[in-house]
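Need the bound structure for NAI, inputs here:
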Amino acid sequence: MGILSGKKGIITGALDQNSIAWKVAELCHQEGASVVLTNAPIAMRLGEIKKLSEKINATIIPADATNLEDIEKLYRESMQHLGGKIDFVLHSIGMSTNIRKNIPYTELNYDYYIKGIDVSALSLHKMLSIAYKLDAINEEGSVVALSYIGAQRTFPFYTDMADIKALLESIARSWGYHYGIAKRVRVNTISQSPTKTTAGTGIKGFNEFFDFADIQSPLGNATAEDCAKICIMLFSDYTKKITMQNIYNDGGYSSTGVSQKQLDILLSNVNNN
Ligand code: NAI
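Answer from helper R.:
Posting the output first, comments after.
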């Protein structure tokens, strides 16, 4: 008996085995949940998600998370496959063409910016609004979206995604209120450490920043597996009163001004010059 025994969930964003969503799906299965996997139709062509679906015995339903019809179909078919309403949803979707093309914040392309907002933030709003309309999520269900501390503090390389993650967190709070009142559904975000995934490593200078964050955090960077454990906790019945929160899963990074290790590296560089 796992802590998600008998629960039914929808997991977005498992692209390959490095994806945070991949680890979440595996752990959900291990903890007794039945899941539907979904991703953008284009991600299906890579074929990796099929391996995961076979491993955890999950159905795949392709859906572009910016498309309302796709989302409606996703919920309707998921409820059919899983035999009832949904208990939890993971939103694990992020994409910025400005970042991918290495365009600085001061010169953002606005078409890319708007696309980034739609894919990475409005998609959460759309997924919740369709669920609400269809009454697809069980009372006391749980929705989790993944965020980054760039929503609160400035990191030059994070360009438009900083603004987009701030919007994502606000959408989670607003829906947490409305869905909470209506159905006691929880909506939270997890602010995750830099993690070596396709989306993460697409950011210029990611490896250097990954090491910086690791040295800065008293507990070191949180891995995708660590993130999966927090997701499972939030999907479970042990967290029924946690909602509208942004939970830092970052080894203490967000509360550290500077670590001694960071200062020692700086001092040794100064001494060597
Ligand atoms: P990933 O690249 O494995 O996952 C991103 C997913 O978004 C992919 O599966 C992709 O196919 C999906 N996606 C893109 N456009 C879509 C659309 N229109 N419809 C449906 N799905 C779409 O990378 P990762 O890192 O696992 O990303 C998951 C989430 O975690 C993202 O929200 C990301 O911003 C967030 N995050 C990642 C961190 C990192 O350092 N990797 C740190 C903090 C948060």
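Comments: The mean pLDDT is 96. The pocket of NAI is lined by residues 12-13, 15, 19-21, 39-40, 43, 64-66, 92-95, 119, 146-148, 192, 194-195, 197-200 (CB under 6 Å).
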